[in-house]
Amino acid sequence: MAAGGDSNNKRLGHRTAPSPGVGVLAALEGAALIVWNLIATPFIGRRRLRWGTVGTEATDSLPGDEFVPEPKWSYTLGIAVEASPEDVWPWIAQLGQGRGGFYTYQTLENMVGCRITNTTEIRPDHQHPAVGEAIHLHPTAPPMRIEIVDPPNALVLFGSPADIGAEDSWGMSTWQFAVNPGPDGGSRLLTRGRYDYTPDWKSRLAFGRFPIEVITFVMSRKMMLEIKRLAERDA
Fold it and tell me: Could you say which residues of the chain have pLDDT below 70?
């Protein structure tokens, strides 16, 4: 009985550990990476859009591609995780501001008012995302909406100002997560963003590639590395 209780506690993450990305040094690291990537974009920008992918992963279809069928720009990032999709999924399921956080540079995000707390635990109260549910990235920004939930393989978020009453053509984006079995065991975790926008400068600023792509890359890379670490820790 005690062994079973210990196993359940481990599975639910009942342990204390510092949240990822906390502290001045972490904030400086995140900020420095953003600045460096901005400067290096002419040299590494195209490779950055497919960081970590192998084979045809960067161009393969993923659940949710249909929500932005003709993106102006997109990215696909990948990472190998030595844990099963069932061990990776709980960390994806609880993503969100006011939920499990994003496993990124917490102090840096909170400096711009995100009010993020990155957990190192699996939180049972956030393990059942549902289609139509709002996922906030920032407490005052329009949320993204869950469009696909397919545990343990896919979670898709969609965002557009049309959701809050703005004109339909102003812009739209997806944030897609796919967890596939790895060819040699474990998992392949992929995340993809697809963006469309109009010529309006506000639309370009909100959905255009720069500077969103650089910030998204730095934060997504950190997120994926942390999900890998946490899933492998408990697998």
Answer: 1-18, 162-169
For the chain, the structural domain boundaries read: 2-234
Strand, coil or helix: what is 207? helix
Rounded to whole angstroms, how far apart are CA atoms 174 and 194? 5
pLDDT digits (tens, 9 = 90+) for 115-159: 999 999 999 999 999 999 999 999 988 899 999 999 999 999 999
> What backbone torsions phi and psi does residue 230 show, to the nearest 5 degrees?
-70, -45
- Rounded (10°) CA dihedral 60, 66, 69, 75: -50
CATH 2.60.120.560 fits 2-234, yes or no: no
Quick: pLDDT tens for 207-228: 999 999 999 999 999 999 999 9
Residues 152/88, Cβ–Cβ less than 8 Å: yes
Structure tokens at 103: 């496993």
